[in-house]
Structures are given as structure tokens and as C-alpha cells.
């Protein structure tokens, strides 16, 4: 079995937000709080590039570019495409982008030489799409968006919820099958983090769902950074002890000790392709 890969953002990889802490979409389970931990892009016509230049000088080798989505589900990318392209070409930065539900051919074409990876949340749950995300489209549209990204030659890493309040094994199976059929080589599994006051997911159920996902997914499978702390001791231990994932973001140290697993550590986002990992390897 291939050695487990663990990922933590330490100093070579960081996150930036094109919109600061602002998010017009304002999803009910987040309300912009995840953006507050990202470095905001300064205002000005070259603000993003200037920020990336400073980060590069400090030793940063890669960035996750994200931000708040507009009501149409897209990240406001238009002003930043040239800056991303220059940062990748001149600074040699690895660019991982959360574009939202971007399907415009012109933008996807321009992104081809501006980014290395697209992270994309694939969901077929109407409750997640319209209720939580407040997006104005159908589950079928989320599939068409990913299809458009793939058709334009992007390395797309689908992010699929292992569990959320409206999930089911059947839904998980369908989402993973569609992602594989579209040609994705890597997939990242997320666990919905309930707002305060709502019940946490049972860790034992998550382990069962993870076993199902492993049996279905033919490529590399990652357990992403979105998962409640309360489930990590049980979920993370099963993930590494049973070899259910190839990659894990921010693994529980206790789970690694108890499972007696020493992974290869990378200072990066878990979405990066194999050929880019060497520059982020820690040990």
C-alpha cells in the first residue's frame, strides 16, 4: 500500500480571499466565517499580484485562492485573471482555485494557464444547493458545471460531502460515480459542520460511509479539512488504520499515534497533483 500523505498548511502554502471576509452568498452554515482566516487581497488594480509577490518573498510556494461567491454562485474572477497568470508564470507559484460554479467558456479558457487545480464542490442535494448554499439552480446544473471545467482541460478535484443532514449512502454513491465518470482522478471528502446548537454527526456512521466511498472511488481519495473536531479521533483513526484514504488534511495526532501510522507530511493543500508535491514535502 502507498504511504499515507498528510497535509497541513504551515508556511509554504497559504490561503487568500479575493473578497476579504465578505460573502454575498452568505451560506447558512458558514456566513463568511471560513474567509476570516484567509489573507484578504488588498484593493487596487494589482492588489492580488502585489500580495502574492510579498508572500513569495516570504517563502510561500503555493496558494489557495478563494473568496465569497456572488449570488450566481461564481467567484468574482474577472479582475484577477491576468494577475493569477502572471503569478503562476513569473513567481512560479502553484495556484489552487475555488472558482465556485464557473462555467463560462471564456473564463474557463483564460484560467487554463492561470491555475494548476480547480477545487469544485459537487452536490446533488437540493437542500444543500438551494437551502444551505442559496443557489438558484438544480443539482443537474452542478454536474454540467464540472463537465464544462473538465472539457476545458482543467485538473478538477471534486469536493463531495461524506455526510450532511440530508445525505444518504445512495446520494454519496451517485455523486462519486458521476465524478469518476467525468474523469476526475482525485476526490476530496468533506463532513458538514453543523451550526452551534445542531447535533453533530455520529462518528461511527461516518466511518461506514467512508468505507463505502473507498469501495467506489477508483483514484486517490482525500479526507478534507472540513470535518468537526468531535469526530476526528474516531473517523481519522479508522481512515488511516484501515487505509480508507490516500490523503488526509490536518489529521488528528492522537489518531496517528493510536494507529501507529507515520505519514509523509506536506505543507500544502491536499488537492495538489502528485507531480507538484515534492516542493511541499516536509518529511
CATH class: Alpha Beta
Radius of gyration: 18 Å
Class from helix and strand fractions: alpha/beta
Strand count, sense and barrel status of the largest sheet are:
11 strands, parallel
How far is the first residue's CA from the last residue's CA?
A: 18 Å
> How many extended strands?
11
Question: Would you identify the CATH architecture?
Answer: Alpha-Beta Barrel
Helix segment tally: 9
Order of strands across the main sheet:
3-2-4-5-6-7-8-9-10-1-11
Domain Elp3/MiaA/NifB-like radical SAM core: 13-212
GO molecular function, one term: iron-sulfur cluster binding
InterPro entries: Aldolase_TIM, Elp3/MiaA/NifB-like_rSAM, rSAM, rSAM_sf
Protein name: Elp3/MiaA/NifB-like radical SAM core domain-containing protein
Molecular structure report:
This is Elp3/MiaA/NifB-like radical SAM core domain-containing protein. Residues 13-212 form the Elp3/MiaA/NifB-like radical SAM core domain. InterPro entries: Aldolase_TIM, Elp3/MiaA/NifB-like_rSAM, rSAM, rSAM_sf. GO terms for molecular function: catalytic activity; iron-sulfur cluster binding; metal ion binding. It is a single chain. The protein is of the alpha/beta class and 283 residues long. It has one domain (5-280): Aldolase class I (TIM Barrel, Alpha-Beta Barrel), CATH 3.20.20. 33% of the residues lie in helices and 17% in strands. The chain contains nine helices and eleven strands. Strands 3-2-4-5-6-7-8-9-10-1-11 form an eleven-stranded parallel β-sheet.
Amino acid at each position: 500500500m502507498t504511504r499515507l500523505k498528510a497535509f497541513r498548511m504551515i508556511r509554504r502554502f497559504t490561503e487568500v480571499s479575493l473578497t476579504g471576509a465578505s460573502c454575498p452568498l452568505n451560506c447558512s452554515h458558514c456566513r463568511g466565517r471560513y474567509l476570516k482566516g484567509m489573507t484578504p487581497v488588498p484593493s487596487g488594480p494589482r492588489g492580488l499580484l502585489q500580495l502574492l509577490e510579498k508572500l513569495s518573498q516570504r517563502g510561500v510556494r503555493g496558494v489557495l485562492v478563494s473568496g465569497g461567491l456572488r449570488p450566481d454562485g461564481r467567484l468574482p474572477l474577472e479582475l484577477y485573471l491576468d494577475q493569477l497568470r502572471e503569478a503562476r508564470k513569473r513567481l512560479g507559484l502553484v495556484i489552487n482555485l475555488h472558482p465556485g460554479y464557473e462555467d463560462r467558456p471564456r473564463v474557463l479558457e483564460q484560467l487554463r494557464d492561470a491555475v494548476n487545480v480547480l477545487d469544485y464542490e459537487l452536490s446533488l442535494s437540493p437542500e444543500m444547493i438551494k437551502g444551505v448554499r442559496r443557489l438558484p439552480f438544480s443539482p443537474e446544473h452542478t454536474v454540467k458545471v464540472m463537465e464544462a471545467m473538465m472539457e476545458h482541460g482543467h485538473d478538477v478535484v471534486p469536493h463531495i460531502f461524506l455526510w450532511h443532514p440530508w445525505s444518504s449512502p445512495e446520494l454519496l454513491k451517485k455523486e462519486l460515480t458521476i465524478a469518476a465518470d467525468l474523469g476526475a482522478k482525485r476526490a476530496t471528502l468533506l463532513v458538514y459542520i453543523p451550526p452551534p446548537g445542531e447535533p453533530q454527526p455520529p462518528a461511527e456512521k461516518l466511518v461506514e460511509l467512508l468505507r463505502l466511498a473507498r469501495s467506489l472511488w477508483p483514484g486517490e481519495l482525500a479526507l478534507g479539512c472540513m470535518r468537526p473536531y468531535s469526530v476526528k479521533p474516531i473517523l481519522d483513526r479508522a481512515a488511516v488504520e484501515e487505509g480508507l484514504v490516500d490523503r488526509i488534511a490536518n489529521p488528528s495526532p492522537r489518531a496517528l499515534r493510536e494507529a501507529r501510522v507515520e505519514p509523509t507530511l506536506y505543507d500544502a493543500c491536499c488537492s495538489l497533483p502528485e507531480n507538484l508535491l515534492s516542493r511541499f514535502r516536509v518529511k
